[in-house]
Design goal:
CATH superfamily: P-loop containing nucleotide triphosphate hydrolases
Number of strands: 5
Number of domains: 1
Strand order of the largest sheet: 2-3-1-4-5
CATH topology: Rossmann fold
Oligomer: single chain
Radius of gyration: 19 Å
CATH architecture: 3-Layer(aba) Sandwich
Number of helices: 17
Distance between the termini: 52 Å
Largest sheet: 5 strands, parallel
Helix content: 40-55%
CATH class: Alpha Beta
């Protein structure tokens, strides 16, 4: 009962505040990508509240009723007015429940100057969304090496691929992706399937020129190695200076971090997936990247398109 009352109070607060969808700060990411860490840094920058994973089908009845898949892909030119209307409401904070409202305190919702909408399931429709909503701050397209994501999900033990085959059939545009669905089903290991699903979902945004212009692409790896430079770049894209409070927060492990001690060794943190997989497994995952013609990552820890970076001290 207490949680129900809490959610109802937050929902009433946000209705009264009247946030517009264009004001939302969208963080489009993947499960186990480090996005909770980044959302907490952004909350430290200015008074904010987090809308937590509003497309999680088990906790988003309206999204589920519309027929979304867990990793929904919407073609950029698709017409789906019901989905657009619902997403506008979500970005405005109008679908608060125990799940979507848990990550921030009630007081943070009351004084928030903006809503941070953290979505591990928005990458597949990010190009479509960017053509329909003129965000006042460019959304963050946050990437982490898919091999690292596979390693982290497998360690967590609650991201199995047993339901992936069924999910490939869900959603109104599933028939358009039959070839990649068949390819994923034919893979023989969990890590290959996780990497392949990452590629299937990320490929539209990675190839889309509109996403390149209207979103800010960030990488977990470069943020970990050079946090100040990456945060300066992000805030500059919004026409804002970097708040000292955000830079201070980058040194704090997120609530989802498995081993906070790793934060002191950035290179070990970004490359620890190499210790979990054999050379054979890495080669097979690299084959998946090539199959999807994804070249932003390869079998090394850093993103391929990284800018020249200073040496760690």
């Amino acid at each position: 009962m207490k949680q129900v009352l809490r959610s109802s109070f937050i929902a009433a607060t946000l209705r009264y505040r009247g946030f517009e969808p264009e004001d939302a700060l969208l963080l489009s990411c993947d499960p186990r990508s480090g996005s909770t860490w980044l959302s907490e840094v952004l909350c430290a920058a200015r008074p904010s509240a987090v809308i937590w994973e509003p497309f999680h089908l088990d906790n988003a009845p309206k999204v589920r009723e519309l027929g979304f898949a867990w990793r929904q892909i919407i073609p950029p030119d698709a017409e789906w007015p019901e989905a657009e209307a619902l997403i506008r409401e979500i970005l405005s904070g109008l679908h608060i429940n125990r799940w979507t409202g848990w990550a921030s305190r009630v007081a943070e919702f009351q004084r928030a100057e903006r809503l941070i909408v953290k979505c591990c399931r928005a990458n597949g429709f990010l190009p479509w969304l960017l053509r329909r909503i003129e965000f006042r701050r460019r959304p963050v397209h946050f990437l982490r090496h898919p091999f690292a994501i596979a390693a982290s999900q497998l360690r967590m033990g609650n991201f199995g691929t047993s339901g992936m085959s069924d999910d490939l059939e869900r959603g109104p545009y599933a028939a358009d992706l039959a070839d990649s669905a068949a390819y994923i089903r034919a893979l023989t290991s969990d890590e290959e399937r996780i990497v392949a699903m990452w590629c299937r979902v990320q490929k539209p945004a990675l190839d889309d020129p509109v996403t390149a212009r209207r979103a800010v692409r960030m990488h977990y790896e470069t943020l970990t190695l050079n946090p100040e430079a990456e945060l300066v770049r992000l805030f500059a894209a919004w026409g804002e200076p970097l708040p000292t409070s955000a830079l201070d927060a980058i040194e704090t492990a997120s609530r989802m971090t498995e081993d906070a001690s790793k934060l002191g060794d950035a290179e070990a943190q970004i490359g620890k997936w190499q210790q979990q997989f054999s050379d054979r497994q890495i080669n097979r995952m690299a084959d998946v990247l090539r199959q999807f013609e994804v070249d932003v990552y390869d079998d090394s820890p850093m993103p391929v398109d990284r800018r020249p970076m200073p040496q760690l001290q």
